[in-house]
Write a structure and sequence with these properties.
single chain, 351 residues, Beta Polymerase, domain 2, 2 domains, five-stranded mixed β-sheet
Length: 351
Amino acid sequence: MVVLDAHSQMILEEYRENLPLFREAEGKIVESIKAQLNEAGILVAGLESRIKSEDSLAGKLELKGHKYKSLADITDIIGVRVITFYSADLGKVASAIDRLFEVDWENSVDKRKLLNLDSFGYMSLHYVCRIPGLPYKAEVQMRTLLQHAWANLNHDTGYKSGVEVPKEYIRSLNRLAGLLELADEEFGRIRSELADYRRRVQALVASGNLDDVPLDGETFRSYLNVGPFDRLNKRIASINQAEIQEVPLMPFLQVFKGLRCNTLGDVARLVKEYSEHAYQIACYQMGLTDLDIISSSIGPQNLCIAILLKNGAGKHGLRYLFDALNGESEGNDMLADMIIEQAKDLPFMNQ
């Protein structure tokens, strides 16, 4: 049973009287943080909040109530935790919080400066902020997703049992903390290097040095941004003055890899060499129709059909193409047969 002196009882009564205000302030603080993070373009893994419970506050007052003149001296009446994916984002979040609230720097702590091996789960930023419109304070904690997970797991394993943990288990826990800290750093490093890679790829694509760019998901996405099939699609659309409906073209990555393209330069050469043949296929498909809406996939699809037909891939090659683009189905067999039948009358097949 918690026993409080008169001074601590007065602080606890002040807490009870202001509890509705704290609940209202908690919601406003969370919403303002969400808005600030969205405005700054910062994606976080989680945003949690709580109001200090009466039992927790009473326990704190029982231990050190003499330290506090009033409830305003207690810095974590409202607690908010922002969980980031990467350690590099902690500084961005901290900057956003600093812009949003008046920070009590004297009581704020940067626990990332701790060097103990077992401190990984507690290496968070703790900003004590003044609650707007109230003479009280809130604590905003910022930590990474792995730090958050470790803090919870370590607390559950090490403290809640009420039994002293043997040294061999503490050593194992500390080793795991070191591994998780390394993983946290490595995720950040990989993210940074991938960002650099994307920038280099975009620069190479923009410069036209496509033979220097290996064909992969990231490079093909950048290549699509420069519209390599736009000219062909517009020419096909002009057959019927059709409207072009944009659709995702990433499925063609697998197809071009199957066509033994190793670089974006290989893809660009195929586009240049086979665009006329792809246009001939479209003329045959659309010439006697009133089709006025076409998909942006028609150009690259006809391009691939032309490559396969011209190089003798036959039904097997066409079936591979349609399976890759549409998913495997028996209907792709019939579609392949139809294309082969139509191909007999295509000019480029008789050259």
